[in-house]
């Protein structure tokens, strides 16, 4: 008898038919869950990378160190701070990039030459020259006399003249004894102010038949000698020493101009009671007795005293103020 061999394909077909039958039964029963196809374990599992692969991936990934982070922060700060500088010099950098080195040197040389030329044009133009002098502080001297003594003229370089104020002051003092000092200041674009410290004339001293003008500092002017007394200034007489004369001149020079011009003559007239007494003859016919060392202090009261009087006489201002009319 021959044995029947089982066919392996029949067993597989039987298994598949049983699975299909079970699936049909689930569909007929209405179970929604079974309608979804089940994934096999092999397909549902996701392969995770191995430990060695993860280490290699970490090595390949770029890592920023703390130093690099700090450096990038500083670079950002520097960029923000230098924005103004870069924007201000951007045009210069652009020009440098457009020009060759020898061309850029030529451009710089041309710029320098233009600046020099502009300066030269300004120096020779009327804008840089003095067009007017404003003289202030004088009482007796004329503006022309001051400018002539100092050597100041229109058309002189403005800046040079201004910065040489001391030179012109010394020049004026040497040429005119009545100028003690002068100072130059810029008043406007082309005008310089000349402020004069003047030594005023306080009278005349008679020597022989000549009258010599005398200043408040005691100096005599030899260039204005006259053979007669000039009105408006007193004649000094009777002084036996230069010390006495200088004291009277110094005090008299402190008086106002109208009061100085009201005096006709000053005579040194000391007594036992007052060794500095002065006898002053006024142009209005009155006489004044006063001490030389108090001349500027007490003489200023004379105009008010005379205004209340109706006759001429002698005003004694040595001690207090007394008036004795002429008999």
TrEMBL record:
Gene Ontology BP annotations: FtsZ-dependent cytokinesis
Biased composition (Basic residues): 35-59
Its membrane topology: Single-pass type II membrane protein
Location of the protein in the cell: Cell membrane; Membrane
Keywords: Cell cycle, Cell division, Cell membrane, Membrane, Transmembrane, Transmembrane helix
Annotated signal sequence range: none
GO cellular component, as recorded: cell division site; plasma membrane
Protein name: Cell division protein DivIB
Pfam families associated with the record: FtsQ_DivIB_C (PF03799)
Database matches in InterPro entries: Cell_div_FtsQ/DivIB_C, DivIB, FtsQ_DivIB, POTRA
Membrane spanning stretches: 106-124
UniProt similarity note: Belongs to the FtsQ/DivIB family. DivIB subfamily.
Top-level taxon of origin: Bacteria
Residue ranges with Basic and acidic residues bias: 1-12, 60-79
């Amino acid at each position: 008898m021959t044995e029947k061999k089982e066919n392996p394909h029949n067993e597989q077909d039987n298994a598949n038919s049983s699975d299909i039958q079970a699936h049909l039964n689930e569909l007929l029963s209405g179970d929604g869950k079974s309608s979804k196809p089940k994934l096999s374990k092999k397909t549902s599992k996701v392969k995770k990378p191995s430990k060695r692969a993860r280490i290699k991936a970490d090595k390949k990934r770029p890592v920023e160190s703390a130093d690099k982070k700090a450096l990038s922060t500083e670079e950002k700060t520097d960029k923000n701070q230098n924005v103004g500088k870069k924007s201000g010099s951007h045009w210069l950098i652009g020009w440098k990039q457009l020009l060759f080195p020898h061309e850029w040197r030529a451009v710089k040389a041309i710029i320098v030459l233009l600046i020099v030329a502009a300066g030269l044009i300004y120096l020779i133009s009327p804008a840089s020259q003095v067009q007017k002098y404003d003289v202030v502080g004088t009482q007796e001297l004329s503006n022309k006399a001051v400018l002539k003594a100092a050597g100041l003229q229109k058309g002189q370089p403005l800046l040079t003249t201004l910065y040489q104020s001391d030179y012109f002051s010394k020049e004026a003092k040497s040429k005119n004894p009545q100028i003690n000092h002068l100072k130059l200041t810029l008043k406007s674009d082309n005008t310089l102010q000349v402020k004069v410290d003047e030594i005023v004339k306080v009278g005349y001293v008679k020597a022989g038949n000549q009258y010599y003008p005398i200043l408040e500092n005691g100096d005599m002017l030899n260039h204005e000698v006259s053979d007669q007394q000039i009105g408006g200034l007193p004649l000094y007489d009777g002084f036996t020493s230069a010390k006495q004369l200088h004291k009277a001149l110094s005090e008299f020079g402190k008086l106002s101009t109208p009061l100085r011009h009201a005096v006709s003559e000053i005579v040194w007239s000391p007594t036992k009671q007052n060794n500095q007494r002065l006898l002053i003859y006024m142009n209005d016919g009155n006489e004044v007795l006063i001490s030389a060392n108090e001349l500027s202090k007490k003489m200023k009261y004379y105009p008010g005293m005379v205004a209340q009087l109706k006759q001429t006489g002698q005003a004694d201002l040595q001690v207090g103020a007394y008036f004795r009319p002429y008999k």
